[in-house]
Amino acid sequence: MLPNKEFLEGVALKKCVTATYNKMQVTLAPHILYTRHDEMHVDAVTIEREGQPPRELKLGTFKLSGLKEVVVEDRQFEPSDLFDAAAEKYQGTTLLAVEA
Q1: Closest by CA position to 33, among listed 13, 61, 68
Q2: Cβ distance 87 to 31 under 8 Å?
């Protein structure tokens, strides 16, 4: 299964991505694409949920198969300090990660 090209573009170009997740519209700053249990995942900072900023910024894990109607936005993001590309969970599973 090929990774979603919108997420590849978002990670590579540090562009925000909008998608529907659990029937909610979310804007994400995707930091890394990787596999876990033979499924594609993206770790991303949620920038907006239903048009509102979150109470606190955090790095969340999203299964790509759960993200629908994905669109790359013309909106850049800066890599978050919350993201650590060297984290153990990414070892040997990373497909693409943002450059610091």
Answers
A1: 61
A2: no
- Nearest CA to 98 out of 37, 28, 48, 38 is that of 28
Give the CB-side neighbour count of residue 72, counting CA atoms within 13 A. 14
Residues linked to residue 97 through DSSP beta bridges, in sequence order? 32
Measured at the CA of 76, the angle between CA 41 and CA 9, to 5 degrees, comes to 45
**Count of CB atoms situated within 10 Å of the CB of 44:** 28
Q: Which tokens belong to 9? A: 């573009």
Distance between CA 68 and CA 25 in Å, rounded? 9
> pLDDT tens across 3-24, in order?
589 999 999 999 999 999 999 9
The token duo for 76 is 């850049």
Q: Name the pTM for this structure.
A: 0.93
Question: How many residues are recorded in the chain?
Answer: 100
